[in-house]
Design a protein that fits this description.
There is one protein chain. The protein is of the alpha/beta class. It has a domain of 64 residues. Helices cover 36% and strands 21% of the residues. Helix 5 packs across helix 6. The longest helix is centred in the N-terminal third of the chain and has 19 residues. It starts with 32 loop residues before the first helix and ends in a 10-residue tail after the last helix. The protein binds adenosine-5'-triphosphate (ATP) and magnesium ion. The site of adenosine-5'-triphosphate has 19 residues, from strand 3 and helix 2.
């Protein structure tokens, strides 16, 4: 995590920018490089005139301060204008979910929070500090506040589970092995992997890998835990169990949790706060119960998973 991501790289989000307007409608000009600039400008004009009709941007009050704030964030990859003036606040101490269709920029948001990507314009503020303007040394420090669970658990294939989970402690603290063992075993028990320490990642099921990634994200007692689709690739029962686990661990430890998903059932189970992201901006955000009652046609369609509504095949 010491280096910052530049352009396409490993992990998710590695697909090339699509030759389309963010949101998925085909570009009229077919997208040859000479026409990219024109396409981009047209996108923007279109954006100003109706593309965002469902984006009330309404941020319903939570009565809590924001632990994480996106302020007018723009981010493009080539002609792919992914974040289009994103304003989003994620309240301190709650489980917040960022929901949105595939390819809307949810993972890109997480990468901005941890300083792996910089905004082209605007600011990302974490506990009052502007992430893009932090010098590398301070960024390294602030990252100790974060636990991150990447989409696939991101375990080191050559290390057993115990060493994987101990890794952040060995890297970021001066703790001795005895103390490390106590923490690691505690977290492993907490996520139900009490006796799997010797196992190698390739011996584990998808659900176990996620739980191991979760245990690892917790060992530094993070103030903020970021989950990128903890439910992807899991069957419904394991998804439900993982959601329960996230809730329990949050109740036990507190902290600000940010969970990215497009699974509505997961949102119903764990979200206290929801931000619906589409076409690079917030459609609506606020306390989960209020969002599930929203009158906004896009939010209604998305949160009920209906095929009829403003959201087409994207
Ligand atoms: N490093 C990058 N270089 C170029 N394009 C990128 C990069 N990262 C993301 N993108 C593009 O940005 C857009 C948003 O990607 P992102 O991974 O954030 O989507 P997502 O909302 O997380 O989708 P999913 O639900 O499928 O995970 C996509 O069109 C993707 O191709
Ligand atoms: Mg993603």
């Amino acid at each position: 995590m010491a280096t910052r991501e530049q352009g396409p790289s490993g992990g998710e989000g590695e697909e090339p920018p699509r030759g389309s307007i963010p949101g998925g409608e085909p570009r009229a000009d077919g997208g040859s490089p000479a026409e990219d600039k024109r396409g981009e400008r047209r996108e923007f004009e279109r954006g100003e005139s109706g593309e965002f009709e469902f984006h009330t941007g309404a941020n319903r009050a939570t009565g809590l301060p924001d632990a994480i704030e996106f302020v007018g964030v723009h981010k493009s990859f080539g002609s792919n204008h992914v974040l289009q003036g994103l304003n989003m606040g994620l309240p301190e101490g709650q489980i917040s979910m960022i929901l949105g269709p595939s390819g809307t920029g949810k993972s890109v948001c997480i990468k901005h929070i941890v300083g792996l990507l910089y905004p082209d314009e605007g600011d990302v503020i974490v506990q009052g500090q502007s992430i893009p303007s932090l010098p590398d040394a301070d960024l390294f420090e602030i990252r100790k506040k974060f636990g991150v669970l990447f989409q696939d658990g991101a375990l080191f294939g050559s290390m057993n589970l115990y060493d994987n989970i101990a890794f952040p402690l060995r890297q970021h603290t001066e703790k001795g092995e005895e103390e490390i063992a106590e923490i690691v075993h505690g977290r492993m028990r907490e996520v139900g992997l009490g006796d799997a320490g010797e196992k190698m990642p390739n011996e584990l099921s998808g659900g176990m890998r996620k739980r191991a990634g979760f245990a690892r994200s917790l060992v530094l007692d993070p103030e903020i835990v970021l989950f990128d689709e903890p439910d992807s690739g899991l069957d419904p029962v394991r998804t439900a169990l993982l959601c329960e686990l996230i809730k329990e661990v949050h109740e036990e430890n507190g902290g600000t949790y940010v969970v990215i998903t497009h699974d509505i059932m997961s949102a119903r189970r764990v979200a206290e706060h929801i931000s619906v992201l589409w076409r690079g901006r917030i459609v609506e955000s606020g306390p989960a119960a209020e969002l599930f009652d929203s009158e906004n046609p896009f939010v209604r369609q998305f949160l009920s998973g209906e095929s009829q509504g403003p959201l087409g095949m994207e």
